[in-house]
Amino acid sequence: MNIPAFTGGNAPPRIASPPAIALHQVSHFFGSTPVLNHVNLTVPKGTILALLGPSGCGKSTLLKMLAGLLHPASGQISFDGEIVASGTFSLPPERRNLGMAFQDYALWPHMSVRQNVAFPLQMRGVRGALLQEKVMAALDRVGLADFASRRPSELSGGQQQRVALARAIVAEPRILLFDEPLSNLDRDLRESLCEEMATLLRQLGTTAVYVTHDRHEARALAHKIAHMDQGAIARIDLNDASVVSPFVA
Questions:
Q1: Are strands 207-212 and 48-52 parallel, antiparallel or unpaired?
Q2: pTM of the model
Q3: What is the pLDDT of residues 222-231, one digit of tens each?
Q4: Sign of dihedral through CA atoms 71, 74, 79, 81?
Q5: Alpha-carbon dihedral sign for residues 81, 244, 210, 76
Q6: What is the set of domains in the chain, with CATH numbers?
Q7: DSSP letters of 42-69?
């Protein structure tokens, strides 16, 4: 029996998927000093958001909240509609399905490049041929497939940061977090690696939050830029510099 296609006007409403990241009234204190002040923010899936501002404005603290390295004093943080932190609860970092890269690279010096990149997968129980396949694919993406057997001490600063990037993406996390990963590099190398990262992040299509104090870096990498000041988001700009409503990325 042929069933005609539905053409009526009472189709069920389309349910929008939750944002990749949602913060509601998130606050944090160091002692009695407020560091984050009732931050509200949503980041749609696939968006690269830069947190831009001077030292002490709260951007790294906010990133550490997303990573699970700090807990909010109040408010709520959700990933894909799942609450990962509140004033009374915090999901451990290893259960948040994140990839992270920091300015000091955080590579284990006694491990080879291959072993450093393999670590997040091993923590998830990946072994054998699949492990090696995924590690080499990640290293190939950052142009370091031929350096898999080297130690971090045998690499330049830019190469070490590429290893850190490969380690961040190898497990295909739902969110990538970057805390000023290029700040230790000289200007020319920073600019070239910034372009490479921008291309890679857009190819991956992964939601990413990128902390920086460099306006040019933010513009090269991000779809949108959240300007932070005194623990709050002052405004969010599109990458074409047109201002959109505060608190919604």
A1: parallel
A2: 0.87
A3: 999 999 999 9
A4: positive
A5: negative
A6: 18-97+174-249 (3.40.50.300), 109-173 (no CATH)
A7: EE-TT-EEEEE--TTSSHHHHHHHHHTS
